[in-house]
Amino acid sequence: MADGASAPPLLSLRGVSKSFGPVHALTDVDLDVPAGAVTALAGDNGAGKSTLIKCIAGIHPPDSGEVLWEGQPARIHEPSDAAALGIQTVYQDLALCDNLDIVQNMFLGRERLRRGQLDDVSMEQAAAETLTELAVTTVRSVRQQVASLSGGQRQSVAIAKAVLWESKLVVMDEPTAALGVAQTRMVLDLVRTLADRGHAVLLISHNMVDVFDVADRVAVLRHGRMVGVRPIDQIDQRIVVDLMTTGTSDREPDVGSSGPRGARRTRDTDEGVQR
User: How far apart are CA 94 and CA 97, in angstroms?
Assistant: First the structure.
């Protein structure tokens, strides 16, 4: 993890609010997203998670509040603003084209040219190197069509695409939804690899086992307000549920069973996953 005392968080939100007509989707939200760490965003349906990540992605500009990038005021009013800063969002639908291969998907919209023609050799090499750096070993070939990939492999390609486009912050919306045990393990290992390589990761998930498997920090939204942001060793699943449902919790964390290592041990034992 990055040392928060030596540098400002990569992304900071201060007093961010967003309304849609009479509906207050976000109210005075404060959140820091440091580099080199996985920040999990939890909350019940309608808590404001999707609105928050769309504000960060430039899809819904905040009505008020301040966005800081590396400690400096930043303007994110459209997706191109977010991309220019180094923010990439991997949505649940992944936005991959089934009829294209992995290389074509990873460079879609940013194709490399050489002498007026597509530089297929350079793009193929860069795609293969990125997957190798992220320890994605289950893909047979970078020329494999995306339609033939498993759910976990598709998530891996979408994440690798974000890394290839030189992202500093990768936002992931329910990356393990509808995945099996082995595919979920693959994606969570990749999430951890991103943070270990210095990227900031903002992870949205309803699966608390996954959250406590990989997260360094957990932020909880309730009715559009941030009701808690705690390091992983100061929170457990019961506290998250308390914060989601009531906005407060007086519990002491039981990190032995619900911390990241405890959750991983429990799942690996119960489901027979070998690491």
Answer: 9
Considering the domain 11-96+166-271, what is its CATH architecture? 3-Layer(aba) Sandwich (3.40)
The pLDDT tens digits of the residues spanning 176-234 come to: 887 888 889 989 999 999 999 999 999 999 899 999 999 999 999 999 999 999 999 99
Distance CA 275, CA 269 (A): 11
67: three-class secondary structure by DSSP: strand
The string of DSSP letters for 207-232 reads -HHHHHHH-SEEEEEETTEEEEEEEG
Query: What is the amino acid identity at position 152?
Result: G
pLDDT digits (tens, 9 = 90+) for 38-77: 999 999 999 999 999 999 999 999 999 999 999 999 999 9
Looking up tokens 């519990």 gives 251
In DSSP terms, 67 is beta-bridged to 13
To 10 degrees, what angle do helices 120-133 and 151-164 make? Answer: 110
Q: Which amino acid does the sequence have at 211?
A: V
